[in-house]
Sequence to fold (413 residues):
Amino acid sequence: MTASIKVRLSAMMFFEYFIWGAWYVTIGTWLSTSLHFSGQEVGMVAGTTAVGAIVAPFLVGLVADKFFATEKVLAVLHIVGSALLMLTARQTSYAMVYVFLLLYCLCFMPTLALANSISFRQMNDPKAEFGAVRVLGTLGWIVAGMLVGKLGLEATAQPLQIAAGMSLLMGFYCLTLPHTPPLAKTEGAAKGGLFPKEAILLLRNRSMAVFAIASFLICIPLQFYYAFTNLFMNQVGVRNAAGKMTGGQISETLCMLLIPWFFRRLGVKYMLASGMLAWVLRYVLFAYGNADSRMWMLWLGIVVHGICYDFFFVTGQIYIDHKASVDLRAAAQGMIYFITYGLGMFVGAWLSGAVVQHYAVGAGYDWRSIWIFSAVASAVVLLLFLPSFKQEKIEDETSIGSSRGAAAEGVSS
Fold:
């Protein structure tokens, strides 16, 4: 990969995650504070990304990989997405916000995998080169969060408008990216289906099945964090909450570097368990922290994001890479992505909204009870996982390196 290609791909990643980070973190605050949506409605709107994640494999696997050049698909999706974000920002009713944002997420969520696809196709050694390109995506998310927080836009529709403007720019920028034609022939489009039978049969292995179930279940309390943390911090009086929340992405980047060291000492089982335990800790910290003397607890709850995400989801990607044969790795990763960020986050969107609405108190919410519920739910998943999952030793440094690169697709950020 030449230096010029690296710069162009890095800019693509910056734009891609700036768009997402600009609106996703704060939309719950806008919906609840300015539009006075119920907790259930906020949860369901946040869950539109999960619906997009469910549809994404179909678009990427059955359309983009088979019929059209990837950069052109990316361009169309971002340009259409820009218009949908602008329309969303103009809505005031739950039904219309949900419809337009759902349509947007059906466009946006597939672009995460497509951006990765363009990058991998241009690289000589993705294991060595992808990380340096993908890190610009995390930087884009951080810059977006700091900008929105610094300007005090969290309770407004302006983050959506900022994202719309960047999405339009991204759409035209995609047309300048290296030409990336489809690899597969049209006549082979239906061969093997979305997830090959061999990938599904991996779930016959007990530990693999336990991992898949645990991944699905942990994504349910995970949605409490994504949908409601910014609203929570604004309601308890944290200033520039969106900016402070970018500490989670900084932590994520640092923890990524520590994965090989911890992996060799803890093994896959206790890496996964540590990630789940971190979710329990985070929610307990949120439950008992405040914006005054115990602000340190809220800070720690944010910063522990690196362990929450990297130790569970990135370690999970490494585990899948180890369990699946080379020709099935992409399909197996896609299947788990579908189960977690699709099905798990969708169920989590519904449940988180219902729980938050149950604990509505006047114009606010009983946040301590909400976070305790999330902590208990995470702890139950951990306790079910520990006796069921068999420890396996993985020593393949290549798998660790490649899966660290593959971490791009997570809701990470």
